[in-house]
Design a protein that fits this description.
The protein has one domain: Orthogonal Bundle (Endonuclease III, domain 1), CATH 1.10.340.30. Helices cover about 55% and strands about 0% of the residues. The protein has a two-stranded parallel ribbon. Helix 8 crosses helix 9.
Length: about 190
């Protein structure tokens, strides 16, 4: 029996990500950092490009260990900019190091990044009832607020659209279509 998925996930490359990860509430700081990094690198590119390079990103950025990433020096940054397995964008690579430092500052202030980031949805998943992809917005008042606060704290590549995508990935928003088999599973 075939599963009815969100129409964006019809291609095989998206199946595993859609079926097991996207929209599942995440409360692990390392996983939240991973999504922050991947969504920042995705800016201006297709999600399939990022998924195809995800393992390369994992290796290049020390399994998304934000403590290690925050200590990257110019030599390590130059090494990353030569790594053909990732997106070699100087602003995004430098932004990842900057974001790791800001991430740690947030942890110190709030006890965890999880505690901080989930405040933008009141600590719960916002459940939408979309029937068509065209209904899903690119941003929301919550992502606007998150973006503004992250930028104030020194993060980069955290515009409202990137924040909305992050919220979808991290399960802060359930944007599975109501016809999708995952809609009820993650609600």
């Amino acid at each position: 029996m075939t599963k009815t998925r969100c129409s964006w996930a019809e291609k095989t490359i998206f199946h595993d990500y859609h079926d097991t990860e996207w929209g599942v509430p995440v409360h692990d700081d390392r996983k939240l950092f991973e999504f922050l990094v991947l969504d920042a690198f995705q800016a201006g590119l297709s999600w399939s490009t990022i998924l195809n390079k995800r393992e390369n990103f994992r290796k290049a950025f020390d399994d998304f260990d934000y403590e290690k990433v925050a200590r990257y020096d110019q030599h390590k940054i130059d090494e990353l900019l030569q790594n053909e397995g990732i997106i070699r964008n100087k602003l995004k690579v430098n932004g990842t190091v900057k974001n790791a430092k800001a991430f740690i500052q947030v942890q110190q202030e709030f006890g965890s990044f999880d505690k901080y980031i989930w405040q933008f949805t009141g600590g719960k998943t916002l459940v939408n009832k979309w029937t068509d992809l065209k209904q899903i917005p690119a941003k929301s008042k919550e992502s606007d607020s998150m973006s503004k606060d992250l930028q104030k704290r020194g993060f980069t590549f955290v515009g409202s659209t990137i924040c909305y995508a992050f919220m979808q990935a991290a399960g802060m928003i359930n944007d599975h279509l109501v016809t999708c088999f995952r809609y009820k599973e993650v609600s």
